[in-house]
Amino acid sequence: MRITMLSFAMLTAVGCDYSGDFLFAGAIDGVRGVDHLDTLTPATIESDADIDGAAIFGEIGPTGTAAKGGVTFTFRGTGDHVCVFVDPEAVFWNQSVSTRTPTPQYAYPDNVFDDGDLDLYAGFATYYNGTPATEESGGEIGDFRVRYQDGLQEEVSIALSECVISSSIDDSGAHAGRGSPEYCTLRNTQPGVSYLVLMETWSTPLDDDRLGYGLLLAHGTCADMLNAVTASNDECVLRGETIDPSTGEAYPNSYEFEDHFCSRAPMGDYCEAERAAQRGNPNYCENQHCFCGDPADTPSGGSF
Question: Which stretches of the chain are assigned E, i.e. beta strand?
Answer without folding.
Answer: 34-39, 56-60, 70-76, 82-88, 117-124, 145-149, 155-159, 182-186, 194-203, 211-219
